[in-house]
Amino acid sequence: MKRHSWLVLIVLAVWSLWAAMPAAAQQYKPEFKSSLVVGPAGPWGEAAIKFADLLKERTQGRINVKNYFAGQLFAGKQTNEFTLLAQGVADFALGSTINWSPQVKELNLFAMPFMYPSYKALDAVENGEPGQKLFKLIEAKGVIPLAWGENGFRQVTNSKRPIKGPGDLDGLKIRVVGSPIFIDTFTALGANPINMNWGDAQTAFQQGTVDGQENPVVSVITPFKLWTTQKHITLWYYAIDPVILAVSKITWDSLTPADREIVRKTAEEVMAWQKKGARAGLEGSNEAIDNLKKNGMEVVTLSAKDLEAFRAKTRPVYDKWVAEVGPDMVKAAEKIIAATK
After folding, report:
1. In this structure, what are the phi and psi dihedrals at residue 144, rounded to the nearest 5 degrees?
2. pLDDT tier for residue 198 given thresholds of 50, 70 and 90
3. Kind of pairing, strands 173-176 and 212-215?
4. pLDDT tens, 57-77?
5. How many CB atoms lie within 10 A of CB 162?
6. Helix axes of 315-325 and 304-313: crossing angle, nearest 10 degrees
7. Buried b (16+ CB within 10 A) or exposed e, 248-258
8. pTM beyond 0.85
9. Strands 232-248 vs 92-96: parallel, antiparallel or unpaired
10. Quick one: pLDDT at residue 284?
């Protein structure tokens, strides 16, 4: 037998032995970095801690995840997170679809104004063809999505007046996330959208230089006690903010098949738990809203007719972003939503 043939056999034998080695014998790097835009408090941050703890336990310490909270890995520019994950700078991330939408424009499907009437509709879209297609698009860019989670429906608060109709937003300075679709939406409603990071926004609220903001109740409005600067809240459910627990493909490829299975199953378990936390006091209960009232916030709940006025005002934004997200993707989601009403 020729020498090169022996070499091939030796290489194949070594590879087979490596593949057959017990997972405990695999040597991984001592730390896997996980990126988050939020801190450790609330359902989002708590899920990251739970995921890291369970992975360490279930792999007997082979996968040791360290959470880098509050944007430590992306130095304050949250829309860079997806790129860092694809590059392997971050091994894992629990990221918002809003922050990842610059790299995966189809994720703007969840920011289409007034598209999602309920959690049931959202879950059906995520579990259906659109959600499956989004996961494939993300994977094609070097990131392996593991499970859906949630930040929540985004509500609007301000310090000036109740918002009951589109005209009530005229001239209000509203802090928004740095995504074009959000700027388009608030501009269409007559507001003055201000893009700034969250730390600066809190200072601006206290100083009165920015009038309001839009964020979910459980994950942001309550833990940050926005009632100290924002007296008025309108429950209008104008956009939803799913989060995704994902792993860099570079990292994923470095894991054994057995450990990949542990990672995936743990992610699905933890994110199901996280979703329940994000909806606590909002689904099947009004506890979270009652808490806002107890802390002095005036809550406006819109009727179907009231919502229609906002929907009509933002329809040009919706139509514009159908082309950006993709007509087929939007139509598939619309069909699912219509069937869940």
Report:
1. -100, 105
2. confident
3. parallel
4. 999 999 999 999 988 998 767
5. 14
6. 60
7. bbbbbebbbee
8. yes
9. antiparallel
10. 87
Q: What b/e string do you get for 8-36 counting C-beta neighbours within 10 Å, with b at 16 or more?
A: eeeeeeeeeeeeeeebeebebeeebbbbb
Residue whose pair of structure tokens reads 């040791």 in the numeric block? 64
Measured CA to CA, the distance from residue 157 to residue 175 in angstroms comes to: 10
Question: Which two structure tokens, joined as six digits, stand for 173?
Answer: 């300075």
- Which single residue is written with the structure tokens 């069937």? 339
Two tokens, residue 20: 């057959």
Q: Rounded CA gap, 251 and 339, in Å? A: 39
